[in-house]
Write a structure and sequence with these properties.
Distance between the termini of chain B: 26 Å
Shape of chain A: elongated
Structural class of chain A: alpha/beta
Largest sheet of chain B: none
CATH architecture of the largest domain in chain A: 3-Layer(aba) Sandwich
Oligomer: heterodimer
Helix content of chain A: 25-40%
CATH superfamily of the largest domain in chain A: P-loop containing nucleotide triphosphate hydrolases
CATH topology of the largest domain in chain A: Rossmann fold
Number of helices of chain A: 10
Largest interface: A-B, 31 and 26 residues
Helix content of chain B: over 70%
Order of helices and strands of chain A: EEEHEEHEHHHEHEHEEHEEEHEH
Number of strands of chain B: 0
Number of domains of chain A: 2
Number of helices of chain B: 10
Radius of gyration of chain A: 24 Å
Bound molecules: adenosine-5'-triphosphate, magnesium ion
Number of domains of chain B: 1
Number of strands of chain A: 14
């Protein structure tokens, strides 16, 4: 595997006041991937991004970007990193095109009208280029921030909750934009509360809670490792205990014996096969049922169960 | 090494922002200064004896210019850095490949440029009301530039230090304005009775006003070299403080 584009080692941030927002985070980001950082409010996602982008001074640990320590090579690193912040903060009086051109200049690049036009067009902002930012809708404002972050053609892009407060259609549009960036070879690190977003977009997923990176894995591997099949089998006649015929399956009674709940498998489809086995066993034992509802667990449930697990361990 | 393109971007943007509100930015100080000229120069000045060989109306010009220059420069510069901190737009500057040099030359350069434009407008306005000539025009311009730069830096520090609007306004109101008024804007300090004429020498603004007055009329309360030296010292102290702020990230980076 090629050298990671970003490498965090033991990254720790303790805010004045003693709050530990990052606790020895180790993370490697591969070139060209889309990495989703998932976690509840206050988990430390924004702090992690801030530490890489120069907004937060780490308390401990190291950050290497493009193979160089950013503590000493911050200029080189920052030239190649783009940031779209979580908050919609930009000079609202400025026209769109001027704001975007400014960003390009600030990062030290020569003016390039063609490039700016291309960026604005790809974000459907070209028609609005001369409008003051305050006259745009929230979704457009967020796209202006993306345009500003892309103006200096970064190799590594941070998107801090790019789809917060954005409607379903726009969110899909945002996913398409992120897809375009991937196609151009930009490495993208995004944070989100929407599990479906990570599920839809990301190559890999990291889950962070209370400053600790709990797990990092390929999205599919994580689904496989932590995924579960859940089936609810409605019984024709209520039962008071699990009959021996199906005791070897991971089942429990629920709804006062009105139905059986199966929880098992691994996210690779093994669960579904086992549910099929279970129904056959039920038939053989002469237990009648009136309906089956089978579901694969989503990243969301994985996420919640991981966090519960964390709480229990603590 | 200084990233000039980044510096230029910051400078240009700040000036454009200034031009957007040019009317207010220029009208208010010009109006106040004109009022001072009318009241002190034309009305009261007529009954005042000549000071250091110049008519009272002319005598107060450098002081009034300094009064406006210090106030406007400080507030321009402090707002220039405070507002991005307040609204959060500073994230972009902090994540950009720019350091203390680019930021200072950009922000402070723009604030100083605004002050120079303002100074020029005030001098022209004054010329309409009072007759005066400048003995050392080149030195006057250089000196105004130095003072503008120094107080832009001072304002920059203020804008980083302040964590609310009250604090932003309190230093100019509590220190700058009184010290300038007492700093010989409207009188020559040798008009003060003992021991106030000695005490006045502890007021740093005295040297600034006096320095500018010297470039105008070739005579002043204190030696021009001393004025220049104190201005340069103040400038150096401000640069050092700002370099330290950037090094530690104080009030800028969490
Ligand atoms: N400047 C700061 N000073 C002190 N504490 C801070 C600061 N910024 C963040 N924190 C604290 O650090 C913790 C992590 O915050 P952070 O913003 O990184 O969370 P997050 O994962 O981005 O949350 P969200 O999903 O709500 O954006 C929180 O408890 C927060 O209160
Ligand atoms: Mg956040």
């Amino acid at each position: 595997m090629s050298e990671p584009i970003l490498e965090l080692r033991g990254l720790t941030k303790i805010y004045p006041g003693g709050l530990k927002a990052l606790d020895h985070v180790d993370l490697e980001i591969r070139k060209g991937e889309i990495f989703a950082l998932l976690g509840p409010n206050g988990a430390g996602k924004t702090t992690l991004i801030g530490a890489v982008c120069g907004l937060v001074r780490p308390t401990g640990g190291t950050i290497h970007a493009f193979g160089q320590d950013i503590a000493s090579h911050w200029r080189d690193a920052r030239r190649r990193i783009g940031l779209v912040p979580q908050e919609l903060s930009t000079d609202m009086f400025e026209p769109v095109i001027r704001a975007v051109s400014y960003s390009r200049g600030l990062f030290g690049l020569a003016p390039d009208k063609g490039r700016i036009e291309e960026i604005l067009r790809s974000l459907s902002l070209w028609e609005k280029r001369n409008d003051r930012i305050m006259t745009l809708s929230g979704g457009m404002k967020r796209r202006v921030l993306i345009a500003k972050a892309l103006a200096h053609e970064p190799d590594l892009l941070f998107l801090d909750e790019p789809t917060a407060g954005v409607d379903v259609e726009l969110r899909k549009g945002m996913w398409a934009i992120i897809g375009q960036m991937r196609a151009r070879g930009v490495t993208v690190i995004l944070t989100t509360h929407y599990i479906e977003e990570a599920e839809e977009m990301a190559d890999r997923v990291g889950i962070i809670n209370k400053g600790r990176l709990i797990t990092v894995d390929d999205k599919s591997a994580m689904m496989a490792k932590l995924g579960r099949t859940e089936a609810h089998i409605a019984l024709a006649v209520p039962m008071s205990e699990i009959p021996p015929a199906i005791a070897s399956f991971p089942v429990e009674l629920e709804n006062g014996g009105m139905s059986l709940r199966y929880r098992g498998g691994d996210g690779t489809g093994k669960g579904k096969a086992e549910v099929a086995e279970l129904t056959k066993a039920l038939t053989r034992a002469g237990i009648d049922y009136t309906g089956i509802d089978t579901r694969e667990s989503s990243l969301e449930e994985i996420f919640v169960s991981l966090l519960d697990h964390e709480e229990a361990a603590a | 090494m200084i990233a000039w393109r980044s510096t230029w971007s910051i400078y240009k943007r700040e000036l454009v922002r200034f031009l957007r509100t040019a009317f207010q930015s220029v009208l208010a100080p010009v109006l106040t200064t004109s009022l001072y000229f009318i009241v002190f120069g034309a009305a009261i000045g007529g009954r005042m004896p000549d000071l250091s060989g110049v008519g009272y109306g002319s005598f107060i010009i450098p002081g009034l210019l300094m009064l406006t220059l210090l106030g406007e420069t400080t507030s321009n510069s402090s707002f220039g850095i405070y507002m991005p901190r307040f609204t959060g737009t500073i994230y972009e500057l902090l994540s950009a490949p720019v350091g203390v040099a680019e930021t200072l030359i950009g922000f402070v350069g723009a604030a100083a440029t605004k002050s120079l434009i303002l100074a020029a407008i005030i001098l022209v306005t004054a010329r309409l009301l009072v007759d005066y000539s400048i003995a050392h025009p080149l030195l006057a311009v250089v000196y105004i530039m130095l003072v503008a730069a120094a107080f832009s830096l001072f304002g920059f520090i203020l804008g980083i230090w302040a964590d609310n609007f009250e604090k932003l306004g309190i230093i100019p109101m509590l220190f700058l304005t009184p010290l300038t008024f007492l700093g010989g804007t409207f009188y020559s300090i040798d008009m003060l009775p003992e021991p106030w004429d000695k005490i006045a020498l502890f007021n740093p603004i005295v040297y600034l006003v006096s320095g500018l007055r010297w470039t105008f009329y070739g005579s002043a309360d204190v030696n021009f070299g001393l004025s220049l030296g104190i201005t340069l010292c103040f400038l150096a102290v401000c640069v050092a403080i700002i370099a330290y702020i950037f090094k530690t990230g104080w009030r800028l980076r969490a």
